[in-house]
Amino acid sequence: MKPKHVDFYFDYLSPYAYFAWRQIVPLCESAPVELSIHPVVFGKLLDHWGQLGPAEIPPKREFVYKYCYRYATLHGFAYNPPKYHPFNPLHALRLSLREVCGDNQRQVISAIFTAGWSHGKDIGEPGELSGIVDTLGLDGANLLEKTRTPAIKEILQKETQAAIERGVFGVPTMIVADQLFWGNDQFEHIALCLEDKDPLDKEKAAAMLARGRAIDRKAVAR
């Protein structure tokens, strides 16, 4: 049976999430399937799973930026990363919750992603975010005021915890029919899954995962 639903998990800190966002909306519309959008706090995912972010590893940070320039050039759109990176994404993430922006959620997310990763805006700064939302004909200041309430803060926390409970360890993550796909390079596999043509042999995959470990790496203090 073809899946009818896709969950998309993202944080504005990730350029890969921007690239995936540019693909996931048209893919779901063409399938067609329902798309549920989940802003989550990337830093909390990293903390939970004991990982470092790409920007925290100097050579990886350099690799990511070079990759992004190549990717954007090959796909025909501008790449101009945020004025500061890393930045505090909490205001932007809360602003992107459906409980804050309602039926304008997709437009708000697209506007913030594009402003940050194609136009170099400081999307960690509330005043900048308010201006971005204003360009959509919405009241940016009013929506930002909503993000400061305990109830909205709690919703983002719950979204992040729910993502962890589903095994989400990074962004972007897409979940289709309980299959987790991580990264903006997963769309060929996602499309096959949406067509009910997933090439994964679940029994063989489970057998491989059940194999024992011969060695474990010791954690290195930083």
Descriptive overview:
This protein has one domain (5-209): Glutaredoxin, CATH 3.40.30.10. The chain is 51% helix and 9% strand. The protein contains 11 helices and 4 strands; from the N terminus they run E-H-E-H-H-H-H-H-H-H-H-E-E-H-H. The radius of gyration is 18 Å and the shape is globular. It starts with a strand and ends in a 13-residue tail after the last helix.
CATH architecture: 3-Layer(aba) Sandwich
What is the terminal-to-terminal distance? 48 Å
Number of helices in the DSSP assignment: 11
CA-atom Rg in angstroms: 18 Å
Structural class, from secondary structure content? alpha+beta
Q: Estimate the mean pLDDT confidence.
A: 96
Strand content: 5-15%
Strand order of the largest sheet: 2-1-3-4
Q: The CATH topology, please?
A: Glutaredoxin
Q: CATH superfamily, called what?
A: Glutaredoxin
* Large-scale geometry: globular
Q: Tell me the helix content.
A: 40-55%
| Extended strand count | 4
The major β-sheet equals: 4 strands, mixed
| Tally of domains | 1
- The topology string of helices and strands comes to EHEHHHHHHHHEEHH
CATH class: Alpha Beta
Q: Poorly predicted ranges (pLDDT <50, ≥5 residues)?
A: none
